[in-house]
Amino acid sequence: MKSPVHRCRDVEHARGQAGDGAGINCLQTEQRIPISKDVITSSSASAMWFIRDACGIVCAIITWMLVLYAEFVVLFVMLLPSKNLTYSIVNGTLFNILAFLALASHLRAMCTDPGAVPKGNATKEYIESLQLKPGQVVYKCPKCCSIKPDRAHHCSVCKRCIRKMDHHCPWVNNCVGENNQKYFVLFTMYIALISLHALVMVVFHFLYCFEDDWTKCSSFSPPATVILLILLCFEGLLFLIFTSVMFGTQVHSICTDETGIERLKGETGKWGKVPCWEAVQTAFGGPFSLSWCSPFTGLSCKNSPPEHVTIPQGEIIEEDVIEIPLN
Prior knowledge:
With 327 residues, the chain is an alpha+beta fold. It has one domain. Helices cover 48% and strands 9% of the residues. The protein has ten helices and eight strands. The strands form three sheets. Strands 1, 2, 3 and 8 form a four-stranded mixed β-sheet that branches. A two-stranded antiparallel ribbon has the order 4-5. A two-stranded antiparallel ribbon has the order 6-7. A hairpin with a 4-residue loop joins strand 4 and strand 5. Helix 5 packs antiparallel against helix 7, helix 7 packs antiparallel against helix 8 and helix 8 crosses helix 10. The relative contact order is 0.17. One of its GO terms (molecular function) is protein-cysteine S-palmitoyltransferase activity. It comes from Seriola lalandi dorsalis. Its main location: membrane. One of its GO terms (cellular component) is membrane. This is Palmitoyltransferase.
């Protein structure tokens, strides 16, 4: 059972210092009925999404540059100088397909709304328009003044509350949440695959160069060839380990229906956890098919929120825990 502290996680510290009365209020709200994410929807689901964070933008650019560097070494150092045409065509085609899918997945993860809750909708008029039942309780985020559903958390970088937020990843310059977790999983998977593929080709190329003349196994000088291959080997090994761990962590989070931030905060949650296979189907957009591996397909099986949600205008409510009916 989630503790009263977790149920009132968004109450500001000033309220917590108000005395025993605040603590009693938190204990009372434990018995109230929370509001689900199906009632509070996002108004930016179809809009272009991009976080203007300097660190995230730099990390995203570095990610693309590293993939392009691997592409350069694989093509111009290992494959084009190779005497085996079949070997070059097969490995070149496979590597380029995986690299293209990795970059496409990265772009989708970066430019997809992760599940942001509308900002500034914590008004009496908006809450009344939800037509909630007496006894239900809604929580206001004091940072973005939004009415947040269960399992939503505020991201200080995105400056929004994100539904089923797992974590904020600077490498994709975005939060990993309900709407873009599939693309992040695909990104880590394809990066791990191209890293493994590059490492295997580096090993074979080193063996080929040792057996043959170093001046003939590459269009670059032997010292330059060695340096380029060692850098690629280091890059491939580093990202193979990193992305494999991230891929396994994300798959575990999907199967257990528990996000990384929920595990970090120790929130066991009162939500009804869905079975593993059902959770995987929800995250990847439907029954098992090849579309699971495609970053170009949407999440069709999700209950998508309306494209435009009209938020009644009004003053922001001061309370962080709001009980229905409104006082």
